[in-house]
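To: structure desk
From: M.T.
Subject: fold request, one chain
Message: Could you run this one when you get a chance? Sequence is below, nothing fancy, just the single chain.
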Amino acid sequence: MVNLKAQYNRLKPEIDAAIQNVCQEGAFIKGRQVAQFETNLAEKIGVKHVIGVANGTDALQIALMALDLESGDEVIIPAFAYAALPEAVLLLGLKPIFVDVNENDFLINISDLENKITNRTRVIAPVHLFGLTAEMDALVDIAQKHSLYILEDAAQSMGSTYFSERIFGSSGTLGDIGTTSFFPSKNLGCYGDGGAIFTNSDTLAAKVRMLANHGQTQKYYHEVIGLNSRLDTIQAAILNIKIRELDEYISRRVQIAAWYNEGLGNVKSIIIPQVKFKTRTHAFHQYTIIVEDGTRDQLKEFLTENGVPTMIYYPLPLHKQKAYATKDVLYVSEQLCHRVLSLPICPELTSEQQLYIINKIQSFYKS
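Reply: Done. Structure tokens follow.
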């Protein structure tokens, strides 16, 4: 789905030189490139603090730990998302409360969220899925009304923005604390594992840095139980190169999405995602269609046979997973799992390749 080899070859001289510099300097852990990347990313997304960690899942766990929650406290999360968030919630002795999503944007449903708030609710954790930020105005209003934290899972939305009359900024910087992943296939990806935590709070930033460093602010003196999670220097050096390309990557993804919309707009069996929103820009980490007539699996098989990679995000909602199962009925999330299909949208996709994909989908439905 992402041509990482082609992406590397385009940046090869700079990437190789950056890695070589780290090797020559010998500071493989906490080298200067880590602090440099944290500064570069903070400036890019307009947030006061960026703390690099080992991966996106660690980022979620550490962010939750920094909020000083108690066992049994409830964290509201969308059911149509990846497992990292409920995994972190449950490992900390907290309780995930699953809510449904909207069909039009795949994001957390505000009405269902409000119905799930109890006296044990402490955190709302929207997942900014596929590259689009959730409705932050409504989420901020609810959080303020009930004195709740907002933890943004922005692992898939690097490069997207939100801009209402009251709230403006980059995805992941709009709540109390945000997290992201630098998994290689992400819009801003490294060449291994990596993640980061964002916040404008000095207090939360200090807690996060301590928690990620074995619970210590001074070496060998441990104030709290923490863990060992850090962005290594080589990955930071690579990200310092790739962050310069982020705007171009996003622009290319948006253009590809627009071409898909134009090419697939007349296919009656397909609902295509929106490109423009009044208060949000889409970074299109994934281009995900909804197949209406029950032919999703056949379409996927047909495209595979014709050399087109596709993915199903996600084949089973979180509340139906064995590890997290509840008795909730979340209709949209359950239906989407049988209807969604993600098409290639990496910046390296050529116009000829995309035309081939569109033509194959059109021919499938004509036949």
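Reply (cont.): The mean pLDDT is 97. Let me know if you need anything else for the meeting.
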